Amino acid sequence: MNISIHNSWSDKLIHEFEASYFKDLNNFVTQEYVDHKCFPPKSEIFSAFNLCHFEDVKVVIIGQDPYHGDGQANGLCFSVADGIVHPPSLRNIFKEIEKDLGIPYPKSGNLEHWANQGVLLLNATLTVRAHEAGSHQKQGWEKFTDSVIKTISKEKEGVVFLLWGGYAKKKAKLIDTTKHAILTSGHPSPLSANRGYWFGNKHFSKTNKILNSIHEKEIKW
Predict the structure, then answer these.
(1) Nearest partner of 43 among 31, 33, 55, judged by Cα
(2) Residue 7 has pLDDT above 80, yes or no
(3) Got the DSSP string for 90-116?
(4) Residues with Cβ < 8 Å from 141, sequence gap 6 or more?
(5) Other beta carbons within 10 Å of 164
(6) How far apart are CA 73 and CA 57, in angstroms?
(7) Hey, CA dihedral for 196, 158, 175, 117, is it positive or negative?
(8) What pLDDT, on a 0 to 100 scale, did the predictor assign at position 196?
(9) Quick one: 219 exposed, middle or buried, by C-beta within 10 A (0-12, 13-18, 19+)?
(10) Does the pLDDT at position 4 exceed 90?
(11) Which of 99, 121, 156, 183 could be stapled to 77 by a disulfide with Cβ–Cβ 3.0 to 4.6 Å?
(12) Are 77 and 123 in contact (CB under 8 A)?
């Protein structure tokens, strides 16, 4: 695995990259990409960090795994490449934005424009074997991304963390709530959304209200 990550992050995470667990993870991921079809493409594994630099982080959205279908994952949680059919969770995210802010449902499911505005779209596990959900879990990625969250919490102020669903909510313990805001709700997946745990959370307008209150530029969702 070629660790091609922006300097603003590599400087903060150098101890992780040098740790024995990460070297084991690197060996595992490298071999997986040799032996199996894996996602996202190798060049996009660290896209979340390369499109949203450390100093620019204003919002963090935490997902679990990359999409494991052909052509879907692009290194940003919940996002898909241009021209790819929107997965159900992403559809529900866009529907909530439409209700919350009156923004028309978009054609593209590519969330790079969020990342470019300071939204870190962080999956807990950054790679996956094709068509095998969760296949790269518990190999070290979670330790790495937990360290990312802790580093943001420790070294920045006024970041809004959006924790959707039970898995993401467990990350709250890594975040200093005296310095940062946390918004929680059900997951945008149909199972959760259809039970009333997602729609109406207004997380997108609430995030912008928080950013405005600390004189940060709001996100154009």
Answers:
(1) 33
(2) yes
(3) HHHHHHHHHHHH-PPPPS----HHHHT
(4) 25, 124, 125, 126, 127
(5) 27
(6) 21
(7) positive
(8) 83
(9) middle
(10) no
(11) 121
(12) yes
Is 65 considered catalytic here? yes
Closest alpha carbon to 76 in 40, 29, 37, 38? 40
Distance CA 12, CA 72 (A): 29
CA dihedral 164, 166, 167, 173 (to 10 degrees): 90
Element (H or E) spanning 25, and its range? helix 20-35
Which pair of structure tokens corresponds to residue 168?
A: 């993401």
Identified catalytic residue from 11, 35, 65, 176: 65
Question: Rounded to whole angstroms, how far apart are CA atoms 135 and 131?
Answer: 9
Q: What is the mean pLDDT of residues 130-135?
A: 96
What's the token pair of residue 191? Answer: 């199972």
Extended strands (E) in the chain: 38-39, 59-63, 119-123, 128-129, 160-164, 181-185
Q: What is the pLDDT of residues 80-92, one digit of tens each?
A: 999 999 999 999 9
- Structural contact between residues 101 and 221, judged by C-beta atoms closer than 8 angstroms: yes
* Torsions phi, psi for 185 (to 5 deg): -165, 180
Q: pTM of the predicted model, to two decimals?
A: 0.97
SS3 state at 181: strand
